[in-house]
Write a structure and sequence with these properties.
Elements (H helix, E strand, L loop, with lengths): L8 E4 L2 E2 L2 E2 L1 H17 L3 E7 L6 H5 L4 E6 L8 H15 L3 E5 L2 H14 L3 E5 L1 E4 L5 E7 L4 E5 L6 E5 L16 E5 L8 H8 L11 E5 L9 H10 L3 E4 L1 H5 L20 E5 L5 H7 L4 E6 L6 H4 L2 E4 L2 H14 L1
Parallel strand pairs: 1-4, 1-6, 4-5, 5-12, 6-11, 7-11, 13-14, 13-15, 15-16, 16-17
Antiparallel strand pairs: 2-3, 8-9, 9-10
The structure holds flavin-adenine dinucleotide.
Flavin-adenine dinucleotide binds next to α7, α8, β16 and α10.
Cofactor: FAD
InterPro entries: DHS-like_NAD/FAD-binding_dom (IPR029035), ETF_a/b_N (IPR014730), ETF_a/FixB (IPR001308), ETF_alpha_N (IPR033947), ETF_asu_C (IPR014731), Rossmann-like_a/b/a_fold (IPR014729)
Keywords: FAD, Flavoprotein
Length: about 325
């Protein structure tokens, strides 16, 4: 989308079980300043449970608040928030989008920026509008030795802002604004439910005797249930490449590799994992390695005892069937 198609400053208002986080008021304070310089509206968006004090965002400076109301937003679930925020931003088309650099904001913002195909400047400490109406995002760099001034050319211009850098917006209960309720996108099977189903009954992956691990070849979080079924039949647990963890499909408790866990099970089944050195660092000492991959040149086959060139969505169900028949 071009610059002209975007207008306004959008603040993502974070909350904790319905209580609005103070960083949201700080962003509204700064957002108001930027919006006034650009002669543009200030928006806020909140994804939250029923009965959030939405008017507070108007008292703190928002001209319009987009409220995606559903009790599922009581829990901070990145994938669910991401889907909803991305669709809302596509609809609202703001020029600037600000997210607090809280633990959740730091995890959410890159997922949203990546899905929108736009840049993200993380951990900003100042934001300015220059003489040609460009947003300048300022953040410390090189161990805080310099302040980098960054101007992104993709829209919306997205930034995460450190908490307690800006003053909270002043509260004015006479301010008026519009509240627009938007319908949430709530997938039928939610990630939290899937994770509940696939979790390994408290077993530590480093102790598992069988690990059935999935990589980027896994298309949706729900498909992890297929690996879980196989792992259960073999008395093991599931594992994952970092790629699946980064995508938010599964927690880092299951990550195998250099920056994850080092495992040495009796059997390691790698499904849709290419075999990057960082992954191999965590599992190459497994007693028996079976790799399933559609690409015959995947490096995982170099260390596998048995390699199956094929689609995991066909091969894994065949394994399951065979084991069930035994
Ligand atoms: P990809 O490399 O994208 O491979 C996906 C594979 O799936 C491909 O080979 C493809 O042919 C196959 N495939 C696709 N569809 C199917 C299908 N339907 N059926 C069968 N096969 C299919 N990675 C880790 O895993 N663990 C770590 O701890 C880790 N630490 C890292 C630390 C650092 C500092 C860095 C820089 C990287 C680290 N990485 C780690 C990332 C690592 O470099 C790779 O990016 C990652 O392992 C790739 O994951 P993947 O194999 O799932 O994805």
């Amino acid at each position: 989308m071009t610059e002209k198609a975007h207008k306004g400053v959008l603040v993502y208002a974070e909350h904790n079980k319905g209580i609005i986080h103070k960083v949201s008021y700080e962003l509204l304070g700064k957002g108001r300043e930027l919006a006034e310089k650009l002669g543009a509206p200030l928006y806020a968006i909140i994804l939250g449970p029923k009965d959030i004090d939405i008017k507070e965002l108007i008292y703190r400076g928002a001209d319009k608040v987009f409220y995606i109301e559903d009790d599922v937003f009581n829990k901070p679930e990145e994938m669910l928030y991401k889907i909803n925020l991305v669709e809302a931003i596509k609809d609202i088309k703001p020029e600037i989008c600000l997210i607090g650099a809280t633990t959740f904001g730091r995890s959410l913002a890159p997922r949203v920026a990546s899905a929108l195909g736009t840049g993200l400047t993380a951990d900003c400490t100042e934001l300015e509008i220059d003489d040609s109406d460009k947003l300048i995002q300022i953040r410390p760099a090189f161990s805080d030795n310099i302040l980098a001034h960054i101007h992104t050319v993709t829209y919306p211009q997205m930034a995460t802002i450190r908490y307690k850098e800006f003053f909270e917006a002043k509260r004015d209960i006479n301010r008026e604004g519009e509240i627009v309720k938007k319908q949430g996108i709530i997938p039928e099977t939610r990630l939290v439910e899937i994770l509940e189903e696939i979790k390994g009954d408290g077993i530590d992956i480093t102790e598992a005797e069988v690990v059935v691990a999935g990589g980027r070849g896994i298309k949706t979080p729900e498909d992890l249930k297929l690996l879980k079924e196989l792992a259960d039949l073999l008395g093991g647990m599931i594992g994952a490449s970092r790629d699946l963890v980064d995508q938010g499909y599964i927690s880092s408790d299951y990550q195998v590799g250099y920056s994850g866990h080092r495992v040495k099970p009796k059997l390691y089944i790698a499904c849709g994992i290419s075999g990057a050195p960082q992954h191999l660092a965590g599992m190459r000492d497994s007693e028996l390695i079976i790799a399933i991959n559609t690409d015959p040149s995947a490096p995982i086959f170099n260390i596998a005892d048995y390699g199956i060139v094929g689609d995991l969505y066909e091969v894994v169900p065949m394994f399951i069937e065979k084991l069930k028949r035994q």
